[in-house]
Amino acid sequence: MAKKRGFRIDLHVHSMYSGESLADPRDIIESALEKGLDAICITEHESLHASRPFEELKKDYPSLIVLRGVELSTDAGHMLVYGIEDSVWNDWGKHNLCNAQELIVRARNLGGLAIPAHPWQIVEGAGSHDGVQIAVDDRIASLRNLTALEVCNGKQASNPIICEILGAFAKQMGLGRIGGSDAHVPEKVGQAYTVLKAPVYSSRDLVNALLSKMYYPQSSC
Ligand SMILES: [Zn+2]
Ligand SMILES: [Zn+2]
User: Fold this and answer.
1) How far is the CA of 214 from the centre of ligand 1 (A)?
2) Cα(181) to centroid of ligand 2, in Å?
């Protein structure tokens, strides 16, 4: 069998612990394995604590690395936070619209990273024959100390121009480019993912890998 290239991790997955998803955690893990992923990161909305049940569950699936982060709402749009521990994060940002710059600094100070999720917007006006065009979300333009952007989001897999625009922007800004499915149902897990150079086994590994910027997003559509 040909050796698989890179380490595939879906960095943006929701389950029933997000509230707006009905996805059973076991079905998510089994779907990830079926898709050939090496790892997933659960990123429930608002609460890192919400995904704690995955800690017990993952023991039943030794062939998939299961990590946990959180997706928070900020004044610069949604942001994915990785590499933070329940005990020190203490569900910071829950039920609040966070200040994005404060979140970036806070996450980094605690050994983690905050990365803008699906940072694009529709702008009306010149440049497109139908009067509408896709652009980078202008709310992230002034953020300092960013490491990466989610340039490929599974929900936009049918519209690859979004991935292209965000990817070009990330390159121009010297930022890493990640992909994640944003799946809310098991079937969508792996629709977009990130290919890392080497395996990661812990949140700390993941942060180090993301800081290296040696990875790229992939969409399965
Ligand atoms: Zn989001
Ligand atoms: Zn999401």
Assistant:
1) 24
2) 8
From the CA of 45, which ligand is nearest?
A: 2
User: Nearest ligand, CA of residue 11?
Assistant: 2
Count of domains forming the chain: 1
Confidence of residue 18 (pLDDT cuts 50, 70, 90): confident
> In this predicted model, what pLDDT tens digit does every residue of 26-59 receive, in sequence order?
999 999 999 999 999 999 999 999 999 999 999 9
Give the Å distance between the CA of 78 and the centre of ligand 1. Answer: 5
Q: Looking at residue 157, what is its pLDDT?
A: 84
- Residue 125: pLDDT over 90: no
pTM above 0.90, yes or no: yes
Q: How far is CA 157 from CA 45, 129, 146, 181, 220, in A?
A: 21, 22, 24, 9, 8
Cα of 71 from ligand 1 centre, angstroms:
7
In this prediction, residues 168-185 reach a mean pLDDT of 97
- Cβ atoms of residues 23 and 212 within 8 Å: no
> Is the residue at 2 inside a domain?
no
129 class by beta-carbon count within 10 Å (0-12 exposed, 13-18 middle, 19+ buried): exposed
Task: Find the domain containing 184 and state its range.
Answer: 7-219
Distance 42 CA to ligand 2 centre (A): 10
